[in-house]
Amino acid sequence: MAVDPRGSDLKRLLAEDPGGPVVMLNLLRFAEDGVASYEEYARHLREVFLPRYGAEIRYAGAGSTVLAAEDGQSWDAVVIVRYPDRAAFGRMVADPEYQRVTHLRTRALTEAVLQATIPWG
């Protein structure tokens, strides 16, 4: 299952840049005992990397009652992060200091969706 974006994914993200801010949707499925690891990763994100790259968490919450989904389609958590542009996201994930903590996210998850969004209208 997918957890981390590959280099080719990041290149495509930058190549398809419509300009302006980008809001990244994160759907997360935790490994057994993965919540603590993800919380440590999230602390680094909030305290160091998001401020450094001008980003902010717009929403973070635990999955709850599923109203419309097939078996296995529910998520443990949703995080929505706004970056000033796609380049800022790219710079963050390429940051050597970020690279030293990203293993916490990888270890925490069994599956994830990381999707850039484009505002309507």
UniProtKB/TrEMBL annotation:
Pfam families reported in the protein's UniProt record: DUF1330
Residues passing through the membrane, by range: none
Domain DUF1330 as annotated: residue spans: 36-111
InterPro entries, per database record: Dimeric_a/b-barrel, DUF1330
Name the UniProt record assigns to this protein: Uncharacterized protein DUF1330
